Structures are given as structure tokens and as C-alpha cells.
């Protein structure tokens, strides 16, 4: 009976019309940050009502999609404080994120009543020393930490056998469009929750594809920033070289409002954030939300190994061609059939060395992170392996192995071989994407779904995934616009103009 009720409750919610605040006519579901702020201003909505709506929706939908691990027990109190601040502010604009509930991927530390566990029982009850750098910025902007989103456990860095979206603490995340479809990872919960209107916005992290892929697979917008643009301090690490934090939202404008808040220098992530700070525009990114942003943009279409993988009669191929025509109609200059120099050499090298280097970096980075926790039942990668072995017969713990953990523990850390591989990846990045973009004077390259993320990862390049369409079964797919370091303004112009011209995204249908 309990399992039947857990299935029926979400269906009843889905069949009901979008919730409107009684007497005011404002519909929360699918509402953007800008619409919510306008409703705040007009007295049609309060932060408390907004948090209550999302809490109720999480309660109803989470048994079906497993997108959220914990809801912040302080969220209502924080919302009431935001309402009080707004009432006392008069006509003063408190910022786009003030009073806005946001979900955080459960590898982003919060110094509050929420756990930070990377989805693992091994870190349940651990205590972080402080908020992550991006969380500190969100709180300063008045955002409300709504809770922790599920993820592919350990950011999909525990085992090769773990399915996308599987999380020890919350179970298997489900794609809200087609429940049997791959939600992708590792920021699966963040993308699922935003797509299903369980939060206004969310943060994800990416080492290689973990923002772009779930965004594409769940019909939401994801921004993977230039490496170091947003601080990684307080984020459970894989690689200090490749880790990134970025927004996952329903619209490009929402993602940009979040990006504007989280970027900037952080002394606890000094090297990366000081290097990337030069790319941040003085007046922020909002001004690049231009409906004519495609006008005059030179966009390289990477066909070989990317778009040519789809049969010409497939839904994806036909959809992509239609979008290319739309971009041209909006003034973009598309350079077809471009090929990255030394593409096969780069791909071969990534395939041979990227995982090897990441495993070495992870061993050092996770040991350092665990050692700095105020309290933790585990203090090293070796402790994590022991914990998993000890609990391998328990529900949700031993279902999948930990081969990546074991391989990482058996590595010697970052040594001469790894440093040489990292140096070679930098050289290949310059000889590959950078050479192509400079030669053709490109503002961006466009690729399907998440096929380009490894090249983005090793080069520290930014990318934006935007909803592009739906397969015959209803499962979503996106387009990814990628540029060189610091190209966020151009990518935002392109992505926003594309989104406004195509208007692809629709709410999820929760098909079986």
C-alpha cells in the first residue's frame, strides 16, 4: 500500500493545474527569477509561499524522481527573513537572487543543518568548517538554500559500474521527461529538480560533462564556466585542475543571474580564481542577454565525429538542421563541417590519460578535503574504501563496486608521468580548439548534447547547453555552445538569442 501511495501522489500533483497563489493569480511552476521578483514587488508572492510550494512539490515528486536528498529545515525561517528584508527595503532592488530558493548539488558544502556527503553514507554526519565559496556568495545575495540535490554518488567517481544518477543516500534519480531514460550525471539531481520545478534554480559541478550532460538530458540550461571563474573552495573535489561550479536552470536568463552572483576571486581557491578573474566583465553578465545576440556571430559547426553520428533522417539530425537555419536567419554566420586540428590525436590522448590523471589528482584532493573537516567518520580515501567494504551488504551501499576508488588509492598521486600528461593536454588544447577558433575567427563552436565535454574539460573552456528538442520517445536533447576561456559574454549572447528564437523547452511529462 505504501509503495502504491508513493506512486499515486506524484501523479495527482502532475494532473493538477499549476499552483497559483490564492487570489493573486501568479503561477509559480515554471516561473523565472525575473517573474518571481516582479511578483514579490507587486505583492502577489512571498518567499515563504515560494519555499512552501517547492517543499510540497519535493514531498510529492521526490519518491518518483529521487532528485533531492535533504530539504533545509531552516528554509521557511530564511524565507520569512527575506520577506522582512524586502518589506523594509522600499523601492530598493535587493538583487535578482534575493529571496530565491536554490538547490545545491550535495558535494557543495554548507555550514548549516544540511549534510554535505557527495551522496554517500560515509560522510553522513560529517561537519564542514565553513560554507563553500559559492554558497557564501549566494547567501550574501539573499538566496535561500533550499536543500541538497542528489547526484551520481561521489560525482560519478566511485565506480565505472554505477549508473548515471545513482546515489547511495537517495536511490536512482529519474529523468522527469521519460522515467526510464538516462538522466545523465553527475549533477543529475540538480537538473531533474529544476526541470520538474522542485526549485527555482540549482547549482551543479562539472569535472568532465557533469553539468552539460544532465542539462541536455533533462531539457534545462547549464553553464559550465571557464575553469576558476567560480570558486571550488568547499566543494568535494575530484580534480583542482578540472573541477567547476555552475548554474543549472530552466532559462538562460536565470542561469546568467546565478552566474553573476557566484563568480569572483576567493582566497581559498586563490590560484584558479585570481587567474580567471580577469575574464569577468565589470558590469556583470546580465547585459549580454540580447535577443539579437546571434547577429554577426561566427559559429563553427563540428560535424565530423559529432553531428555526423546521427543518421540524416533521424529526429536529432533534422532538428539540428532546422536550428542551424534559424541561427542563420537571426544573422549568425555558420561555418559548416569544421574539423579540430589533430582531433584524433587529442581524443586518443584523452582516452588514454585523462582518467589516469584524474585518479591521481583525486587521491591527493580528497585526502586534503577530508582532513580539513571539523568532524568526519572518515579521514582519507583509504577510510572510504574501508567503509564501503564494511557496509557492502547493506541496502544501497554494496549494490555497486568502488573500482575507481581502488585504482585511485593504488596510484602514487600526481608524479612525473601525470605532470607530463597534464602539460601535453595543455599543448593539445592550444593546437586543437584554440588554433581552429583563432584561424576561423570563431565566437563559438556548436556540438550536439554532451559529446564535446572532454575537450572542454582539459582546456578549461566554458560551455552552455540549451534545450534543442525531444526524441521520438520524448527524451530531451540539447545543443552545446563552447568558446575559449573568458568567452562567456559571447556564449551568453548566442545561447540566449537561440533560446528566444526557438523556444524549445516544455515542462516534463513523466512518461514511464
From TrEMBL:
Residues 1-23 form the signal peptide. Residues 50-450 form the Amidase domain. The keyword Signal applies. InterPro entries: Amidase_dom, AS_sf. The keyword Signal applies. Coiled coil: none annotated. Keywords: Signal. It comes from the Eukaryota. Pfam families: Amidase (PF01425). This is Probable amidase At4g34880. The gene is LOC120264552.
